[in-house]
Write a structure and sequence with these properties.
With 324 residues, the protein is an alpha+beta fold. The protein folds into two domains: 145 residues, no CATH class; 169 residues, no CATH class. It has six helices and 17 strands. Strands 7, 8, 9 and 16 form a four-stranded antiparallel sheet that branches. Helix 2 packs antiparallel against helix 3 and helix 2 runs parallel beside helix 4. The longest helix is centred in the middle third of the chain and has 26 residues. It is elongated.
Length: 324
């Protein structure tokens, strides 16, 4: 099964009247005023900062099994002015002037009052909801990339097996292998981090959350104020999603006869060959990491019937949750 992750930046070129002070005039039509405003806000964000369409396509041979598209815009509504509200048939048509702010904030100040005592509750709630919705869309974009971890994140190559005997005359199946990051996955992860990172910090300053990707001679340091982003990445790489190597024996018809999971040396020995996710403020991806090892399976005599039926032995990348 192949899974293709691609990030395509789609700029929406839309004719729109731009009001004073960078406000964008947009129109929303919907059965209710609030829904019409929401549609207008969405259009203003797309006009101001564009959208990123992330397509996740999973296929097996000729049959498409999954085709998801997530839309992400790196902006939120900072302020708006209602120009007109017009009932039209069963809908409401609202015209707004909307001010869109970049969501890549160095600090978490979303807005501020125009004087000491003023507080516009409706606009404050709109700003907060718009910002949180943008963050949730970012979470979905991240899930689209990290959802295929570790299966599509690594490539494993197995070498011809070798049969040996131990000192107790037990048969040992030895399967040499090499495992490394899938470069396409690193590219997708790097692009997603670039879309989601917060505003510029000093080059040497640690942010509250940090993702560092080293690959093919490049070192990219992505910085975030948003700790849930870091937690979401770590959750996709640990627990039930932690990396394992699956061994499977199959007969001539492709039926599974035996399965077993093994922890790579990078996991069992806590060697940071592929990544380090144990820093409380960061994740470090070592995209050039390669592990070479040997999977060993002791075969007792009572398993000889299984061995006799086996026509294929396959190593694959799996997560610990699939190891029963």
């Amino acid at each position: 099964m192949n899974k293709l992750l691609r990030l395509v930046a789609c700029l929406l070129f839309v004719t729109s009247a731009v009001a004073e002070n960078n406000y964008i005039r947009v129109v929303g039509t919907a059965p209710t005023l609030e829904l019409a405003k929401e549609l207008a806000f969405r259009e203003a964000i797309q006009i101001r900062v564009g959208t990123i369409v992330l397509s996740e396509r999973e296929s097996s041979f000729e049959n498409t099994l999954k085709d998801n598209v997530s839309v992400y815009s790196a902006g939120y509504v900072d302020d708006f002015k209602i120009i007109s509200v017009i009932p039209k048939n069963s809908n409401v048509v609202v015209t707004l002037d909307v001010l869109v702010a970049d969501s890549k904030l160095m600090n978490q100040k979303l807005s501020q009052g125009k004087d000491k005592k003023s507080f516009d509750g409706e606009k404050v709630v709109t700003t907060l909801n718009s910002f949180l919705q943008q963050k949730q869309k970012g979470d979905r974009l991240l899930q689209t990339v990290m959802g295929s971890y570790p299966k599509n994140a690594f490539v494993i190559n197995q070498q011809p097996y070798v049969l040996t005997l131990d000192s107790y005359r037990n048969t040992i199946l030895n399967i040499p292998y090499t495992m490394q990051w899938n470069k396409d996955f690193i590219v997708a992860m790097r692009e997603a981090m670039g879309l989601l990172e917060d505003n510029t910090y000093k080059s040497s300053a640690m942010a509250p959350a940090n993702v560092v990707i080293n690959s093919q001679g490049d070192r990219d340091w992505f910085k975030f104020n948003d700790m849930p982003t870091l937690y979401n990445i770590k959750n996709e790489m640990s627990g039930s999603k932690e990396l394992r190597i699956g061994l499977e024996m199959l007969n001539g018809n492709g039926k599974s006869l035996y399965k077993r999971c093994y922890a790579p040396n990078a996991i069992s020995n806590r060697k940071p060959v592929f990544y380090d996710i144990y820093d409380t403020r960061g994740i470090f991806i070592f995209g050039n990491g390669v592990e070479s090892g040997i999977i060993q399976l002791q075969i007792p005599p009572e398993y000889n019937p299984v061995i006799q039926q086996t026509s294929k032995i396959e190593l694959s990348v799996v997560n610990i949750g699939s190891c029963n």
